[in-house]
Amino acid sequence: MYSSVLVILISLAIGTIAYPSTWDHVVHERRQVMPEGWNRHSRLHPERVLPMRIALKQSNIDDLDSHLMRISSPDSEDYGKHWSYEEIVDMFAPSPDTVQAVHDWLLSAGIIGDRVSKSRSLGWLHLNVSVGEAEALLRTEYHLYEHEVTRQGHVACEAYHVPRHIQSHIDFITPTIHFDTKVLPSRTNEKRSGAGFGHSGRPPWLPKVSPIAKPILNNLQDCHNNVTPDCLRALYGIPSLPPGMRTNVKYTPQSYLGSDLDVFFSNYSKSQVQRRPTLLSVDGGDVNDIPNLGQNTESNLDLQYAMALVNPLNVTLFQVGDMIETDYTSFNNFLDSIDASYCSSNDATDNVTSPTVDAIYPDPLPGGYTGPRNCGGHAASKVISTSYSYNEHDLSPAYETRQCNEYAKLGLAGTTFLYCSSDYGVAGSQGRCLDPTTKSYNDGSSGSSMFVPSFPSTCPYVLSVGATQIKPNASVTEPEIACSTKIASGGGFSNVFQMPSYQSQAVKSWFRNYPPPYGAERFNNSQLTRGYPDVSANGARYVVALLGGYNYHLYGTSASAPTFGSILALINEARMNIGKGPIGFINPTLYAHPYLLNDIVNGTNPGCGTAGFEASPGWDPVTGLGTPNYPRMLQFFLSH
């Protein structure tokens, strides 16, 4: 496979030919509406340089789902037989015909072979092109866009074209129509809990924050008011000091404050005072020790609880991105760092001055990270929890599908990916709804606003985690309800991804037995698409130390995802202690054995001028299958 490609690359350096004007070009991707908050400004100068990335069509990708289901279903003879990275690369590498066709196309446009680098799996081509070259190649126009609140810049086009005979060989090309939601500059206001960035003055991916006026005791009788690690242990049957380890992902400028960890541990996990997570830096990511409510909130929450729940072993922290590229660091930068087959092998991009979809490293901006881009340098941990999300509507289906397939490949390797389902009920990750005619965002006050699904939760290959809470004045031993205090558990149905086979029976049962009072005017009710969340965990009134040890209440699926992930990490550790491998992609097992979870049957997830969906017996698009039951889950996974 590799020798044949080498011959292609050598032949490309011999010369160039004119780009045939007679080729039949077709639209490859077109953006229907402008993402919320962005305005188009000037055309880009034709000599500006763009780092272009071409996602080549992968071989055998239609078989990816069946391969993953076979090793992830506990009744299968191949259950738990995870693949090596080499096996994954070999199975899904693009065909030589695809590589040849796309290289011939680039050559015809005057882009010779030594300008093109490839990923280890050959799945990506990376090249630097001028704006003029890109516009001629893709039959499009590039403009600079600006976000009306953050003033963040972005390069994009409205649509782009490729020759008809090339279209079947390409998934997508960047930078083009994609507005990958970035980690935005923090503007948190702890006294407000509005419905989205630009309304509450806070980034939509941060958990809700409220100050606590009095000291909090570690008291199981008070869990309905103040959730502490012991409350979570009591809720889900977690032993006090089990061995374990897990991974958390943070995107700069989010960073924990060590002194806050120590204050929290001194109250709730004394043996961990002065303990810190193991830092794995991605593209210059580092810990910023300056107190800042907006920048410390997410990291402090996740690490204080993850470390306490899996004590005494370490938590690993992936800190992604330097302090200069904080507007652009994305999920793809993290995926690059753990899978070289997803990442271009090119270590540098010269003369890059235009912002694009993902952060560019080495960072060309003053003060930026100048080392080589992390490309497969970090091994993927076996449980990875991420507390950020996009709106599915803001990214193209091709872009989302490619990233979703990467989660599936990492599932083949034995990694469990968890994502929060968002905090705005049926109103997506930013508390926004859609006009049914224009498909543009509105505030949900319209009587006909459509629900907005959250990505990556709609990807069938991640475990989507919603939020629950203890009922007011209830005991910690009583059943929880769907979270409705300050946040609402994100949930709904995808407009992009088909319903996975493991979920079909549960979702169709919900439609049959508990049909919602809405039709296609509100959400995708075809019963053919992915429903989310899959599971849930407590997401209300977490006591967190911030700003030098002051106590705050935090709310959100940002808390639910790492809590559930900690439990899966404990189970992995117990399996490894008896010579078994990691649980890997867990969704098929949970849907086949829902008794492993505590079913949540009360509550709703309001949004878009509605009460949202209702929790009900079995799976529902509010709390999924329910909350973790550690003793049942441990017994099951130790026996398989």
TrEMBL record:
Active site, renumbered: 298 (charge relay system), 302 (charge relay system), 558 (charge relay system)
GO CC, any one term: extracellular region
Cofactor: Ca(2+)
Residues making up the signal peptide according to the UniProt record: 1-18
Pfam families, A to Z: Pro-kuma_activ (PF09286)
Binding site for Ca(2+): 599-600, 618, 620
GO molecular function, a single term: metal ion binding
Keywords from the named record: Calcium, Hydrolase, Metal-binding, Protease, Serine protease, Signal, Zymogen
Subcellular location: Secreted, Extracellular space
Keyword Transcription part of the UniProt annotation: no
GO BP annotations listed: proteolysis
Peptidase S53 domain location: 226-640
InterPro entries registered for this protein in UniProt: Peptidase_S8/S53_dom_sf (IPR036852), S53_propep (IPR015366), Sedolisin_dom (IPR030400), Tripeptidyl-peptidase_I (IPR050819)
Free-text remark on how the cofactor is bound: Binds 1 Ca(2+) ion per subunit.
Protein name: Peptidase S53 domain-containing protein
